[in-house]
Specification:
Blueprint: H1 2-6, H2 10-40, H3 46-67, H4 72-96, E1 100-107, H5 112-120, E2 126-132, E3 135-145, H6 149-159, E4 164-170, H7 184-187, H8 190-199
Antiparallel strand pairs: 1-3, 1-4, 2-3
Amino acid sequence: MAFLALTGTDIYTWLILPLLIFIARVFDVSLGTIRIIFVSRGTKYLAPLVGFFELLIWLLAIGQIMRNLSNIACYIAYAGGFATGTYVGMYLEEKLAMGVLLVRIITGKDSSELIDFLKSASFGVTSVDAHGATGHVNVIYTMINRGDLQRVVGIIRRFNPKAFYSIEDIRSVSKEIYPYRRPFHKRMHLPSLLKQRKGK
């Protein structure tokens, strides 16, 4: 009742209504960013669901704009919500870290140590000898989960700060992505333990 009593007042017109429009725009633009991520990842069921709520919130916001065409504060709130929602959407995309990436590393330096370290960290590695503009180079491919990107970049910079690397989004893969947890019996080295037990 108290909220309804505020409608029609200057506080509602110039403060509460623009604030509600701003919040609605932040939500719908953020959902739009997440929907695009789901579409690019081929998530068939979540993308339409997110799109439904995105458009519903947008309709509520634009409806208030159309009812208050003479209120400049609503226009500012609408534009400000769009800008803020874009930032929030990018932040959420970074934190969600969804998807698979292909990291391509090109280095003229001996890469055996880098390859060994990536393998020891349970990342799958494919290495190819090639020739670049400056001579012989080694091209290293590794496919990783997006959440492991900063870890892999840190490894690259640690072993070869001058190495060139590029990162590509992968839509889908046919098998499991590294790193993965090895089966329990392999991690525990059961064959060697059994040999030791027999020796005793």
